[in-house]
Structures are given as structure tokens and as C-alpha cells.
Amino acid sequence: MNKPETMMIDDVKYVREDSVNAPVEIGEKRIIVADCGWVFVGDCVDEDDGNVTIYNARNIRVFGTTQGLGELITGPTSKTRHDHYGTVKTKPIASIAVKSGW
Fold first, then answer.
1. What does the alpha-carbon distance between residue 101 and residue 15 come to, in Å, rounded to a whole number?
2. Residue 1 placed within a domain
3. Contacts of 82 (CB under 8 A, 6+ apart)
4. Is 75 contained in some domain?
5. Among 25, 28, 55, 82, which is 20 to 30 Å from 5 by CA?
């Protein structure tokens, strides 16, 4: 038997919960795009003032990718160049979830 994907109640359309993709949780390990072209990766803690503190930070100075920054979510490529920076606090322009490899 086919289950309905949607239903109408009082002219409001409802969608089955299991038919919607769940949002991706952005974890602690992230790539952070900061001001002036700085890009970091590390263990992130969001601060109340909108800043993020990045522990074990690495500055990604050469992406070494053919498909842009998103290619680094599974770790650096053989052409990626990054340097250890310790702890960094910055206001992020973008925050990208990292799957593995860093």
C-alpha cells in the first residue's frame, strides 16, 4: 500500500516527516572562511558574540583543489598547503562542516 506524501487539513498542506531531508549538523571540526582571505580548519567553539574560537587551527594557504574549497571536507589533497596556527578567534564569513581527514 502506498503511503501519502502530503495531506491537507483546513487548507494547510502537511508533509510527512520521513520524506524531508534532515538538516546536516555542523560539528566541532570545521573549515572557517574569515576576513581578508584567511581560511582555517580546526576544532571550533561558537561564542555568544558571533565569533568562533578555533583550537588546533591550521591556516589553509593553498587549497590544492580542482573543485573549490568544498573538496577539502574530506581532508587535504596532496597539493594542499596548511600551517599550524594554534588557537584563533575570528568572526566567520562561512562555516563548512568537515567529514574527515583533518
1. 37
2. no
3. 41, 58, 59, 60, 61, 62, 76
4. yes
5. 25
- Cα 38 from chain centroid? 16
Alpha carbons 48 and 20: distance in angstroms, whole number: 30
Q: Is pTM, for the whole model, over 0.85?
A: no
List pLDDT tens digits, range 14-57: 888 777 776 656 678 999 999 999 999 999 999 999 999 999 99
The CATH number of the domain where 26 resides is what? 2.30.30.100
Domain membership of residue 38 (yes or no) is: yes
d(CA 100, CA 75): 6
Residue 10, domain member (yes or no): no
Better-predicted residue by pLDDT, 4 or 74: 74
Q: List 57's β-bridge partners, or say none.
A: 86
User: pLDDT by residue (tens digit) across 66-86?
Assistant: 999 999 999 999 999 999 999
Into how many domains does the chain fold?
1
Cα-trace Rg, the chain: 19
